[in-house]
Amino acid sequence: MKIEGLERFTEVPPKLYNLREEEIKRVLQSEKIKKVICFALGPKGTNIGQAVEKWIKRMDISSKTEIIFCETPEESVEKGKKVKEEGVLAIFWTCAVYVGEAELFFTNPDTLPFFFVEKMELDEMQLATRAELLGEINNGKIPKDWKIASHPSPVHLVRKLENPIVFAKSNAHAAVLCQEGKVELCITTESARKIYKLERIFGFGSPPMIFFGGITQRGLELIKKCF
């Protein structure tokens, strides 16, 4: 029964279930897909951005792919939905541990958020600061009035500290806030630490993580044409 105000999840044809990697590559390299646009959480230096770069290289589609960095995963979805050009495949990327992943999934039943998957070790997550502040850390004790910038997802890594938290839009954005002097510390990635010229205080490690590439209904129709 059709109920006004409700919508069904996008249905995937059986032939598109559990595609092997060589089949995915063949589809993405098809001449029918003229361009691929990947929308990912930025700025440059985020784990999602690096996972997307790794996936693009592995799929061998660098020559026709563009990465557009967004402020939030939700913005990535919305921008993906706005891509209407013929032969252009829009892919929005998220992470398995994103705190809003369930809400993003259930509020966008007209998309397929987990169509592509990329597994990657995290670019080492770490607590970093500006070089001029290193001398103020005595015997491993961080001043309690120092503010820590963190995306909501990894903030629990510093749950045992009593420092005030300033929420950032991404791990790389947290590094920007630290570089700009708005906070004294940040949870960020090794790449972002280098980009924004910060100093490492503590490393949390690099566990394997899952990243998801989602497509819209329009994207699904384009992929169907490639079989």
Structure, explained:
The protein is α/β, with parallel strands linked by helices. It has 2 domains: 14-121 and 209-225, D-Maltodextrin-Binding Protein, domain 2 (3-Layer(aba) Sandwich); 125-205, Periplasmic binding protein-like II (D-Maltodextrin-Binding Protein, domain 2). 26% of the residues lie in helices and 28% in strands. The protein has helices at 21-28, 47-59, 73-81, 101-106, 171-179, 190-195, 217-225; strands spanning 35-41, 65-70, 88-95, 111-121, 125-129, 148-150, 165-167, 185-189, 199-205, 208-216. Strands 2-1-3-10-4 form a 5-stranded mixed β-sheet. A 5-stranded mixed β-sheet has the order 7-6-8-5-9.
Count the DSSP helices.
7
- Contiguous low-pLDDT stretches (5 residues minimum) are none
Q: Which outline best applies?
A: elongated
Radius of gyration computed on alpha carbons: 20 Å
Name the strands of the widest sheet in spatial order. Answer: 2-1-3-10-4
Task: Domain count, please report it.
Answer: 2
Identify the CATH class of the largest domain.
Alpha Beta
Major β-sheet, in short? 5 strands, mixed
CATH architecture of the largest domain: 3-Layer(aba) Sandwich
- SSE run: HEHEHEHEEEEHEHEEH
The amount of beta strand, in percent, is: 25-35%
Instruction: State the secondary-structure class.
Output: alpha/beta
**Mean pLDDT over the full residue set:** 95
Topology:
Blueprint lengths: L20 H8 L6 E7 L5 H13 L5 E6 L2 H9 L6 E8 L5 H6 L4 E11 L3 E5 L18 E3 L14 E3 L3 H9 L5 E5 H6 L3 E7 L2 E9 H9 L2
Parallel strand pairs: 1-2, 1-3, 6-7, 6-8
Antiparallel strand pairs: 3-10, 4-10, 5-8, 5-9
